[in-house]
Amino acid sequence: MSSNLSTIVGLGLVLATGLGISWILSRRKKWRAVGKLSKLYIYPIKSGQYKEIDEAECTPIGLSYSAGDGKLPFRDRVFVLYNAETMKLYCYKFNPKLLQLDYQPKDNKTVIFTYPGKNNLEVTLPEKSDDKMIEMWADEKLRINDCGDEAAKWISEAVGGKECEFRLAYYPINEGWRRDISYQKLEFEVFKNISNEYTGAYSDLASYHLVNEGSVEELNSRLADGDKTNALNFRPNFVIEGPKAYEEDSWHYIKIGDAIFEQFRPCTRCVAININSTTGEKSELQEPLRTLRKYRTMKMLGEERVEPHIPVFGQFAGLYKSGKVRRGDIVYVSD
Asked: How far apart are CA 36 and CA 152, in angstroms?
């Protein structure tokens, strides 16, 4: 009798817990459609050539896109360049030539890097971390797997640096390492949904970044014809068509395809958005950053504690539920 009672009680607890979880999920899944996924981008090399794709798997550290059977998949921002002397990240806002760097996987552990006017470089991925760390923004330290001297020489020549001035590194995917941004205490105080689990590989912060086409159109309405921009210049993963301008500011949970994301912070902007992501050309008038400063800073959106005078455009999000996304998917949001 005691055994039967325990079983009944146990089943009751399981059922109650399950119903509780289902109730919570059902409330969160009161989705409303706001638009569709019009563009899907992945940037395997941070600051390198973009790839426009039709579908991708959503992983905790960012998008993953199949390169074919037996080949290393493309993952978002898993390669990075850094300065060999300062051990600091090196990106295209300092040198737009980086935007022409590209690669193709050869097999599951070898990739072939390309750059206009140079012979290709074949790189075998380092198998484990060499305990080197590079510095990201705000003194954040990132673990790397350095890709070796040959890659450093080739990369430095390609982007116009001195011999081995810059080095190439790969994210330690197989070591279970994740970034720790908990030292940014004010960020955690202000943006309640921020989490170490929502960081990307070598992205500026989040594993996912979205831009609303309606917001791009509204921004362009303020710019002269020669200064107009496009969504790609903001380097998003997701471009969403349909919502009104800046409607994305108020979103919390976002469902695209099988995946669910939690939005946690607006994306602050720097001079990089003044560079055409396709041609590498810089705006002589510092647009669109100059215009954004006039009407979309953190302070203007009501936040004075974190980067109050920095322009914002687009939103950061982390992966709440894994799944596949496809271009054309309906985009839903929930509180």
From this structure: 41
> What is the three-class DSSP state of 54?
coil
**Which residues are within 8 A (CB) of 48 and not within 5 positions of it... i.e. 6 or more apart?**
79, 98, 99, 100, 101, 102, 103
Measured distance CA(293)–CA(273) in Å, rounded: 13
Instruction: Tell me the sheet residues that pair with 191.
Output: none
Measured CA to CA, the distance from residue 98 to residue 278 in angstroms comes to 11
Residue 237 neighbours by CB under 8 Å, 6+ apart = 40, 41, 42, 62, 63, 76, 208, 209, 210
pLDDT above 70: percentage of residues in the chain: 92
Alpha carbon distance 43, 132 (integer Å): 23
Alpha-helix residue ranges (DSSP H) falling in 164-244: 185-190, 213-220
Return d(Cα 288, Cα 277) in angstroms, integer: 13
Rounded to a whole number of angstroms, the distance between the first and last alpha carbons of the chain is: 46
> How far is the CA of 290 from the CAs of 18, 221, 280, 296, in angstroms?
52, 14, 18, 10
Q: What pTM was estimated for this model as a whole?
A: 0.90
